[in-house]
Amino acid sequence: MRGEKAIEGERVLIFAPHNDDEILGTGGMIQRYVETEKSVKVAIMTNGDGQIRRPPFLPFLKADFVKLGYRRQNETLDAMDYLGLDEEDVKFFGYPDRGLSQMWTNHWGQNELYYSKYTKTDHSPYDNSYTIEAPYCGSAVVSDVKKLLLEYGPEIVYLPHPNDSHSDHWATNGFVLYALEQLKNEGYEKFKKVTMLSYLVHNLKFPWPRGQFLEASLTEPTNLKGLDTKWVDVPLDFRERLHKLRAIGKYRTQTQLMKKYLISFARANELFGIVPSLFLDKSSNYAGTPNLSSDFILNEEEDESFLSYLNPKRRSRIASLRRYPDIKSVSLIRNTETLKLAIDFFNRYHSSNEIQVTIKPFNSGDNGDETGNSHSFRFVKKKLFHNQSEIQKGNGYDYHTGRRSYRLSIPLEKIDNPSKLILSITLARRGVPFARSANRLIKLG
Fold this sequence. Notes:
The protein is of the alpha+beta class. The chain folds into two domains: 11-274, 3-Layer(aba) Sandwich (Rossmann fold), CATH 3.40.50.10320; 278-444, Immunoglobulin-like, CATH 2.60.40.2150. Helices cover 23% and strands 27% of the residues. The protein contains eight helices and 20 strands. Strands 8, 12, 13, 14, 15, 18, 19 and 20 form an eight-stranded mixed beta sheet that branches. A hairpin with a 2-residue loop joins strand 13 (375-380) and strand 14 (383-386). Helix 1 (21-35) crosses helix 6. It starts with 10 loop residues before the first strand and ends with a strand. The relative contact order is 0.12. Residues 283-302 have low confidence and may be disordered.
């Protein structure tokens, strides 16, 4: 669908996981907003200081990684200046590169900080971070995102797509979604009208083909077809494409490593996804055939409501090559006391695999001075842990594994009896993640 109405707004805020994502995803839109005298701000979550593929100056020590971070900041400022933004329009949060997903799932509070093996610290080492010495934890990220949203009051927010395969992109989506929903829940009515547009950077054969193709268009990724994302296609004129290509060239630490890939984003259009909220309400009827696992039974006598959504087919290369149980679909049932979760897999589940369900709840009693709770349910070696504490079956808890499925029952009171929640699922082996579901906002009736 064409995106003229979807992209209209006077105040625009762009969230980027790393320095260069702001250009790859929205370089054309930045030009258009600037030229029409709209207000644009850019927030960079990390400084890209955990880069695995190294530029020629090859950092080893903490000082070298931080030096790389400052260098990548300057590249962002050069690119933004080329497109017409001032330095004060760019905010650097300074959180750890390749650590955002861990902060979303396992390092939420101030008492469980994440330690970066690159910057060798658990606080931001940069003297220009949005919050100086910001602690490496999820609640701190949410606080910064909320603060910026309140200060700026955007009408349009750009963020990574929840099915982006890079862990930092996936987590950035979660943090921004969470902060916006919490502000809505705290009574800030203006955020209920915010338009959220998601861009994709990392996905199987996206963009394709790779290289400089200014006349070609970005198309919906093949493995995301069939999902419920509504895609907005925004054509770019040739001058906008050329300026985007030149702006990509400002990121010299990156173009010397992956130029062919980066310039692939300078195309005849930009593509944005609108991801809907999901509803699990007793008054709603599920239209379609339930996609539950064979050993997951609906109890019709309990008047349970039902929700099911798909995950991208074969998104994880590792899962496909090694026959790991990549996620096929997620299904939810809720009664008055329990939330029941069913995960169907493409491949057979093995006892060596780990399943982590992360739930961020919201309820009407949320306090604006608090970030909120995070609940992690980790199933490993046939044992279930809730926020690192082992729990047994009974009192509303139940779990079971099938050949290609996993089910989990959770008492609603153990996750704060939410009115809505953000749900995500991570699959891992020996602590190393190999597949993730999208972060999805689910409203409970």
